[in-house]
C-alpha cells in the first residue's frame, strides 16, 4: 500500500500540476496584495485631502471609537450579551492603542485569512479540481489502467492508494496556500500582525446577530482555525473530484462537470435561496468561514454544524460511489 501511494504521489508530481497551481497562486496573491495596498494608500490620501490637508491620525479615530463604545457599555439598559460584545471590542481597541497597532493597516495575517474567506467557495476548489480531476479518468483515457489492474493487487487497494495520495497532496496544497499568501503579502505590507486580537464566534439567531458566544483570540489562533476549515473543505472537494474522475473516462469532462457544479451552485444559492433543497447541495455549504464572523446566511436553517454534517455526508457518499464503480468498471482491452 505504501509503495502504491508513493507511486501515485510521484505521478502527480511528474505531471507538474503542483507547479502550475503554485504559479496561479503567486499571480493571484501578488495581484490581490498589490491591489489592497494600492487601495489602502489611496484611501489615506483621500482622507487627508477631504480633511483639508490634516495628516491621517488613526489613534485619534480609534480613541474616538473607543470612547463611544465605553459610553454605550455604561448604559444599564442594553442587554448583557450586547454589553459583552462591546467590552470585547473595547479590549481589542485598547490593545491596538497600547501596542501602537493601526487596526485598519493591511497585514500578512489579515490578508491570508481574507484570501481564504474570498476563495473558499470557488478559486481554491478549482485548484483542487486541477489537482485531482485526472487522477482516475486519465488512467482510462490513456489505457494505463490495464497495467495497474494486471498487478496482483485488489482494485480497492489501487483506488485507496490514489485517495491517500490525494489526501497528502491536498494537505500540502493547503500548506502552500498559507505560506505563499503570508510571505507574498508581507512583502507588500511589511507587517505580520499575528499577535493582534480579533473577536470571533458571532452567530445569527433568526434575523438577529447573537454575540453571547464570542471570544477574543489572537490572529494566529484565528488563522489556524480558518485554515482548519479550509483543509476540511479541501478534503471534501477532493473526495467529490475523485468520484467524478472515476465516473467519467475523460479528464476534460471531469473538469467541466466540476466547474459547472461550482459555478452553477453559486447561481442556485443566489437565485433559489428559498428552495429548501438548495441548502443540501455541497457548493452551498463550502463557505464555512462565514459562520465565524456572523455573516449573513443565505438560507434559513443553516449553521456551522449543519454545513459540516452535509459536507461530510457528501464526502462519504462520494467515496462509497467511487469504490463501488471502480470495482465494477469494465476495462476495454
From TrEMBL:
tRNA processing as UniProt keyword: no
A Pfam family this chain is assigned to: ABC2_membrane_2
Single Gene Ontology MF annotation: ABC-type transporter activity
Residues that span the membrane, as ranges: 119-137, 158-189, 224-248, 255-282, 302-326
Keyword vocabulary terms for this entry: Membrane, Transmembrane, Transmembrane helix
Signal sequence, start to end: none
GO cellular component terms, semicolon-separated: plasma membrane
Coiled-coil blocks: none
PANTHER family in UniProt: BACITRACIN TRANSPORT PERMEASE PROTEIN BCRB (PTHR37305:SF2), INTEGRAL MEMBRANE PROTEIN-RELATED (PTHR37305)
Name the UniProt record assigns to this protein: ABC-2 type transport system permease protein
Amino acid at each position: 500500500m505504501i509503495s502504491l501511494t508513493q507511486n501515485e504521489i510521484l505521478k502527480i508530481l511528474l505531471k507538474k500540476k503542483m507547479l502550475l497551481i503554485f504559479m496561479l497562486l503567486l499571480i493571484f496573491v501578488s495581484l490581490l496584495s498589490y491591489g489592497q495596498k494600492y487601495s489602502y494608500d489611496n484611501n489615506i490620501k483621500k482622507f487627508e485631502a477631504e480633511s483639508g490637508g490634516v495628516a491621517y491620525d488613526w489613534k485619534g479615530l480609534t480613541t474616538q471609537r473607543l470612547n463611544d463604545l465605553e459610553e454605550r457599555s455604561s448604559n444599564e439598559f442594553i442587554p448583557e450579551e450586547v454589553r459583552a460584545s462591546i467590552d470585547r471590542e473595547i479590549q481589542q481597541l485598547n490593545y491596538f492603542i497600547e501596542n501602537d497597532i493601526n487596526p485598519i493597516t493591511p497585514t500578512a495575517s489579515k490578508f491570508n485569512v481574507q484570501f481564504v474567506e474570498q476563495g473558499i467557495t470557488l478559486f481554491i476548489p478549482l485548484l483542487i479540481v486541477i489537482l485531482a480531476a485526472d487522477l482516475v479518468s486519465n488512467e482510462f483515457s490513456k489505457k494505463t489502467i490495464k497495467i495497474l489492474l494486471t498487478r496482483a493487487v485488489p482494485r480497492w487497494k489501487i483506488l485507496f492508494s490514489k485517495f491517500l495520495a490525494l489526501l497528502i497532496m491536498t494537505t500540502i496544497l493547503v500548506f502552500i496556500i498559507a505560506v505563499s499568501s503570508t510571505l507574498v503579502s508581507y512583502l507588500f505590507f511589511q507587517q505580520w500582525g499575528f499577535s493582534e486580537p480579533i473577536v470571533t464566534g458571532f452567530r445569527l439567531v433568526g434575523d438577529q446577530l447573537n454575540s453571547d458566544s464570542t471570544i477574543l483570540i489572537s490572529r494566529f489562533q484565528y488563522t489556524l482555525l480558518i485554515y482548519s476549515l479550509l483543509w476540511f473543505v479541501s478534503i471534501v472537494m477532493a473526495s467529490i473530484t475523485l468520484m467524478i474522475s472515476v465516473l467519467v473516462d475523460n479528464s476534460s469532462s471531469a473538469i467541466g462537470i466540476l466547474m459547472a457544479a461550482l459555478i452553477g451552485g453559486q447561481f442556485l444559492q443566489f437565485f433559489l435561496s428559498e428552495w429548501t433543497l438548495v441548502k443540501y447541495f455541497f457548493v452551498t455549504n463550502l463557505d464555512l468561514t462565514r459562520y465565524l464572523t456572523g455573516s449573513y446566511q443565505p438560507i434559513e436553517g443553516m449553521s456551522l454544524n449543519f454545513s459540516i454534517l452535509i459536507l461530510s455526508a457528501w464526502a462519504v457518499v462520494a467515496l462509497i460511489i467511487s469504490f463501488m464503480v471502480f470495482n465494477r468498471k469494465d476495462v476495454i482491452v
